[in-house]
Amino acid sequence: MSSQAITPNREAAILARLILSQDRSIEPEASFAFQPSDMKRMHELAERAQTAELTLAEHDELNSYLHVSNLVAIIQSKRGGS
């Protein structure tokens, strides 16, 4: 068993927050919304990226948010098309 902790803003942790933020059980028509703290962090990272001030760790963190956002968008688009 790995002793590695999940970093707070990596894909698994971000997805867990999205899922746990649901007030109800996850139904097929459920939509996911980022928590305000995640929205704020994504905005901060995006602003820093525009000025090329991101550290390597921040770059990885921003990519994690982008991966999760893309995954959620794909899931929601697939549900809308069925």
Report on the architecture of this protein.
- This protein has 82 residues and is an all-alpha fold.
- It has a domain at 34-82.
- Helices cover 61% and strands 0% of the residues.
- The protein is built from three helices and no strands.
- It has helices at 11-20, 36-50, 56-80.
- The longest helix has 25 residues, at 56-80.
- It is elongated.
- The model has no long low-confidence stretch (mean pLDDT 78).
Helix/strand order, N-terminal first: HHH
Unreliable spans: none
Proportion of β residues?
Answer: under 5%
Mean pLDDT: 78
Category from helices, strands and their pairing: mainly alpha
Instruction: Work out the radius of gyration.
Output: 14 Å
Number of helices: 3
| Helix content range | 55-70%
C-alpha end-to-end distance: 39 Å
Quick one: biggest sheet? Answer: none
Shape: elongated
